[in-house]
Amino acid sequence: MEESPLPAQIGARLRRLRTASGRSLASVAQQLGISSSALSQIETGTMRPSVNRLVELVAVLGAPVSAIFDDLDLFAPDLDHAAGDVAEPVPGVLVTQPGEAAPAQLDQGVVYRRLSPAPLPGVDFFESIYPPGSASSADGAMLVHDGLESGYVRSGELTFEFTEGAVRLGAGGSLSFAASRPHRVVNQTAEVASAIWLTILPACGV
Asked: Is the keyword Manganese in the record (predicted)?
């Protein structure tokens, strides 16, 4: 992991998710295979996790990735979600205007941005932006987690590595796979690439 700042509010949300789950810093760090000091630095915003580490961390805490972007509850039609950058112009209809959604800046300059105004139960819907030469993990490690994933390359070109081989997709290309299949995302080009993701998750509460 790179020692560059994570937005403090995201680190604070990760800490709140951990404390709400009743887990100690040491127990979560042990399950992730990292030091308590490293996890503490993520929670205080002094270290940026990789994509892999972030997904692993929220999974251990029983939360979707979408829970880190703000303090909104999971969307439900009968709740008032209007707060911060989220408006509710019609009861039960949430709106976020272009440029208002706060992103998460991760290791290697990778950016994650939730595309739904509020977290959706059982679903992660987000955009990922990969600078030239970046990847979901710097050390080549592949990610394994629960759920089903579908990705759509919005711009540039991304390589999706699996144990059995790799798939390279340009703008307009898409793929779907079980997230339990080891995978890694890499931008091997000299151009910025972005993708839109829909992840169907097992039932989880935040």
From this structure: no
